[in-house]
Amino acid sequence: xxxxxxxxxxxxxxxxxxxxxxxxxxxxxxxxxxxxxxxxxxxxxxxxxxxxxxxxxxxxxxxxxxxxxxxxxxxxxxxxxxxxxxxxxxxxxxxxxxxxxxxxxxxxxxxxxxxxx
Amino acid sequence: xxxxxxxxxxxxxxxxxxxxxxxxxxxxxxxxxxxxxxxxxxxxxxxxxxxxxxxxxxxxxxxxxxxxxxxxxxxxxxxxxxxxxxxxxxxxxxxxxxxxxxxxxxxxxxxxxxxxxxxxxxxxxxxxxxxxxxxxxxxxxxxxxxxxxxxxxxxxxxxxxxxxxxxxxxxxxxxxxxxxxxxxxxxxxxxxxxx
Lengths: 117, 195
Hints:
Largest sheet of chain B: none
Structural class of chain A: mainly alpha
Number of strands of chain A: 0
Strand content of chain B: under 5%
Number of domains of chain A: 2
Distance between the termini of chain B: 29 Å
Oligomer: heterodimer
Number of helices of chain B: 9
Order of helices and strands of chain B: HHHHHHHHH
Largest sheet of chain A: none
Order of helices and strands of chain A: HHHHHH
């Protein structure tokens, strides 16, 4: 055993060997395999993080899809047909004529003739 | 005892050029190259982690985290410098972080027999008992002191290298090693001197 020297620059081989034995890890090959597997496949911790995000992500995506679908439906909804306009319109001729004028599609002849001036 | 393919304390280390080549290949996506570095430094990393964390499983988890962290940060490594000190700095940080998170350090009281000495460790059982006492004595030391003495006397790093790893002045490293040795040598002397 070496003397205690405050300015000792050399490692103490005996103390080092005793500490090395005390701290000796077991299962070297298994540990190396575990580390190598850790950087070739995602660790369980990574999946936990992803799973944590997944719930909120799915909810947000569903809400967004619902909103987008509603907006698209509003935009793409076809204009009311003349028949529908006439059925909902009051029975006076001015309103019926106005409904014909508002319609996007040409009116059926029978409907035109049904409007009395 | 487990196989330890690493350089012994004070012994020859892996060539700088070889390390740089392994790092270059790792950065290019060659995972077997990084596996070679893991193989080389695994035992050392586990010992250093165990110097901080008494539980071997915790120490292994910390060492594994450190290797993965090293892989992520590999571009930051300067290939003109030895790989070991750079990696051990990451290992020490990983172990310290884990200890802080888990509050593992429960400051178990020393076995009354630790400092009181005992028979010479001639048999396997006695050697095992000495190892346990050394681990307990290490656990009684402040964390930085434990790391300093293990990195210096077990792993063979220089005071300057340890100072870089622990981010403390070189003089502080010398002081920490000195105080750690004083306690641990007393324990070893007591084992060697027949009562």
